[in-house]
Design goal:
With about 290 residues, the chain is α+β, with helices and mostly antiparallel strands. Helix content is about 40%, strand content about 20%.
Length: about 290
């Protein structure tokens, strides 16, 4: 990817940034920044793009991202509708190692943080009891200031470094390095997420990117580490999984709703992706309720 560089300015007398965002929809493009980021979605739903990883997000989604990982959160289409009353809210912390103080990480007591920061280069999803505890601290840190806010950050990082319920988001590290193509990639992402249920073609995406098909195919694969068709298919299968557990729809209805025109092909692709067929996936989910 060649994402845009983002910068959240620090307030006076602060060594790091704490923000509570409240938008109609998340406006941030495909971007990166040199700071570590802790981000929790407190309201809204949509798709999360982090490095080469795509997933749904919903209230409570909590992640710790290392420096320069390209990412963006795109809300569901309903958030962009005129006169929509929905809100997209989140709590975000940006900090650098220098925010912790000169030589802080050289202290023997700070050794647990080294491993955490190294692992964060893949991005980390936060689950379980750690999720619940960190969520409370994020709501608290928004209201704190001065040394109390700094101590809360250190407390959060210490808890993360000791947690056993962190999961890497990407398989390889991704470094943002160029902002010139951010607008191009974001326009393609926006178009795909708005139209993936339809029979969309590579040629259409190339036109959105203002490139010829061969150049766009290489461009997309190099920067997302996915083929265009694989990227679209992943979005379709994620929607299918969501429909299977949230709606009383037949497999055939889900198939066509997600842009497939052949049930056999849909079943095969679903099996390859989730290691079980759609019916078993639905039964397994319902059995856990």
């Amino acid at each position: 990817m060649k994402p845009a560089l983002e910068h959240l300015p620090k307030e006076i007398d602060n060594s790091f940034v704490v923000k509570f965002f409240d938008y109609n929809y998340y406006p941030t493009p495909w971007h990166y920044h040199p700071e570590y980021e802790i981000v929790m979605v407190t309201e809204s739903t949509g798709k999360r793009f982090i490095g080469d990883h795509i997933s749904d997000f919903h209230p409570g989604n909590l992640a710790f991202l290392g420096p320069n990982i390209p990412h963006t959160y795109r809300n569901d289409e309903k958030y962009y509708e005129e006169r929509c009353s929905l809100r997209a809210k989140s709590i975000v912390i940006h900090f650098t190692e220098s925010s912790l103080g000169n030589d802080f990480l050289e202290l023997p007591e700070a050794k647990p943080l080294h491993k955490l920061f190294e692992e964060s280069l893949h991005g980390l999803d936060i689950f379980g009891e750690t999720h619940d505890s960190i969520s409370k601290k994020l709501h608290a840190i928004v209201k704190l200031s001065g040394l109390k806010r700094w101590l809360c950050l250190v407390d959060i990082l210490l808890e993360l470094s000791e947690s056993k319920t962190l999961s890497p988001i990407t398989k390889i590290t991704h470094i943002g390095y160029n902002e010139k193509e951010s607008k191009r990639l974001c326009s393609v992402f926006d178009w795909i997420t708005s139209n993936f249920e339809k029979d969309i073609k590579l040629a259409e995406a190339a036109q959105i990117a203002q490139m010829n098909e061969n150049a766009f195919s290489r461009f997309f694969s190099l920067r997302t580490r996915k083929t265009f068709s694989g990227f679209v298919q992943e979005l379709r299968l994620q929607k299918a999984a969501k429909l299977l557990v949230e709606n009383d729809m037949t497999i055939t209805e889900v198939c066509y709703e997600c842009g497939y025109n052949n049930v056999s092909n849909f079943n095969r692709q679903f099996l390859n992706h989730y290691q079980m067929n759609p019916m078993r996936y639905k039964k397994m989910f319902l059995s856990k309720l």
